[in-house]
Amino acid sequence: MALSDFVLKARVNLALIRDPRVGSLDVGVHAADGNLTLNGDVDTVEERRAAEEVARSVEGVHSVLNEITCGVGKQADTAELITQRFLEKLEDEWNGLPDQSALMQADYLRWALWLIYKFRLPHPLKDGSASTADGNAVEQALSQVAGYVGAPKALLALEMLQLADQIHASPHQDAPEIDNAPLVSTPEVDGNAALAAI
């Protein structure tokens, strides 16, 4: 994947997560020379249309091929399933880096730590042990990312907390500024709202 396609994919991912009509953990984006292919499986036709509409609105997109299906693989969301999709999103973005340079890894790390910090399971899936369920997902994600970048998990947790402090100090900032690989996605959900992601 060329760097320009990687940046375009990141911009589309950002646009998808900012639109509450689309659950971006469910939508995959592939870019080639300004042409996008959307895939995945969403719950409704409206969500499928919204994903295409959002993708078409991103500057630099020449065409959009919408291969998203509706409800084909639909299964009841569980805490384990959402956590697994979250971990897969972290892995997919790591594997999608154009190169393994230190700058790309650093940008991935900033994005991933922001994503981990924002991760919350939907309230209906929490069975009274909300902090335990969220905590287990965060621990798994930190371990996975630590393995990618070859850093101690505790050091990544400290960096995540510092990033959280920066976000809280600047209320209009919803994600860290990333210069080299602007990856964007978040599986944070509120109440019964659809997943907003990655």
Q: How are the elements arranged and paired?
A:
Blueprint: H1 3-18, E1 27-32, E2 35-42, H2 45-56, E3 63-66, E4 69-70, H3 79-95, H4 102-118, H5 130-149, H6 153-169
Parallel strand pairs: 2-3, 2-4
Antiparallel strand pairs: 1-2
Helix pairs in contact: 3-5, 4-5, 4-6
Gyration radius, in Å: 16 Å
Structural class: alpha/beta
Q: Determine the number of helices (DSSP H or I, runs of at least 4 residues).
A: 6
Overall number of strands: 4
Please report the distance between the alpha carbons of the first and last residues: 19 Å
3D shape: globular
Binned, the helix content reads 40-55%
Structure description:
The structure is a single chain. With 198 residues, this protein is of the alpha/beta class. The chain contains 6 helices and 4 strands. The protein has helices at 3-18, 45-56, 79-95, 102-118, 130-149, 153-169, and strands at 27-32, 35-42, 63-66, 69-70. Strands 1, 2, 3 and 4 form a 4-stranded mixed sheet that branches. Helix 4 packs antiparallel against helix 5 (130-149) and helix 4 packs across helix 6. The longest helix is centred in the last third of the chain and has 20 residues, at 130-149. Mean pLDDT is 76; it is low at 181-198.
